[in-house]
Amino acid sequence: MSYSFKNKKSVFVLLFISILYFGMAGIAQAQFVSASSDMAISNLRFSSTDPRAELIWTDEWYGTVTAHAHDTDSGSADDFDELLGNDGFIDAQADTDHVYSEADYGVINGDFVAIDPSGAIGATTHSDLLLTEKHKQADGFAFADFDNFFAIFGGNPGDLVEVTFELDYVGQLTGIADELGFFEIDLGALLSIDDLAGNVVMDDFIFDTHAGTNTSFHQDYIGTLTVTAELMYEEEYWLFAAADSEVNGYTVPEPNILLLFASGLGFIGLRRSLANTL
User: Fold this and answer.
1) pLDDT greater than 50 at residue 7
2) pLDDT above 50 for 23
3) DSSP 232-260
4) How far is residue 150's CA from residue 103's CA, in Å, rounded to a whole number?
5) Sheet of 88-95: strands edge to edge?
6) What is the pLDDT of residue 1?
7) Are the CB atoms for 127 and 246 separated by under 8 Å?
8) SS3 of 173, please?
9) Which of 113, 170, 202, 209 is most buried as measured by Cβ atoms within 10 A of its Cβ?
10) DSSP string for 181-198
11) Are the C-beta atoms of residues 75 and 96 closer than 8 Å to each other?
12) What was the pLDDT predicted at 252?
């Protein structure tokens, strides 16, 4: 199973529109903000320093997808879906006049994920917005996660064994704003192993955010989240992975627009606190 950005071309569309707007700046005053965020996680892998170590998933995979879009012209749109099972695909989409968000998750042959090439799992998130008039505000986010319980067999029960999980990620952030606009863009990905008491054994994550006015920004993100830990043979643990994309923007805000935008930032702050805790 391979995952690609379904809306990657939207980044180039936004860039093209921005050239038109900024090219006309000397003729008429513009109000322009475009923002885009993507994150994809896939290719979960397992290895161990002990050749006897065998990974066994002890439950079915559970995944969720959430999409949110909001702007001052059309209000809010939200979508959510969940899947419990070792085969399947789910998708959540939220669309307003100025924002589009989408998250998807899929799993094939879940019993063999990270064990055999016949098993695969992954998720993608995407959000973008475009504002071309003054006194506008918009925000959106897409979130996807999946988890399962597992145990390591092959050694004596209770003995320690070093294991490693790896998860690839690919993402991008793009933001463009003229002197009358402002954007904030965020992305994140997380891989975590917890014990059944809820304690984090080990985790790895990426998080980045950029904001600005009268500026442009673009960056691609490619890498691997790696979690290495000493676990006990035949002890059950919990694996969790997540992807997140968020966009916010406004043009020449009036007081009521600032209040709406502040509420969006508060939600982002809450999610950042959770990520830092993990």
Assistant:
1) no
2) no
3) ETT-EEEEEEEEEEEEEEEES--HHHHHH
4) 25
5) 88-95, 99-108, 120-131, 33-48, 160-177, 215-232
6) 44
7) yes
8) strand
9) 113
10) EEEEEEEEEEEEEEETTS
11) yes
12) 77
Note whether 165 and 229 are within 8 A (CB). no
- pLDDT score of 47 more than 50: yes
Domain locations along the chain: 8-277
- State residue 2 phi and psi, 5-degree precision: -120, 150
Angle, alpha carbons 140-143-148 (nearest 5°): 170
pLDDT tens profile 66-99: 999 999 999 999 999 999 999 999 999 999 999 9
Q: For residues 208 and 218, is the Cβ–Cβ distance under 8 A?
A: no
Average confidence score pLDDT of the chain:
86
Of the candidates 135, 93, 105, 117, the one whose C-alpha atom is nearest the C-alpha of residue 3 is 105
| Backbone dihedral region for residue 35 (phi beyond 0: left; psi -120 to 50: alpha; all else: beta) | beta
27 exposed, middle or buried (CB, 10 Å; 0-12, 13-18, 19+)? Answer: exposed
Give buried/exposed letters for 48-58 (b at 16+ CB in 10 A, else e): beeeebebebe
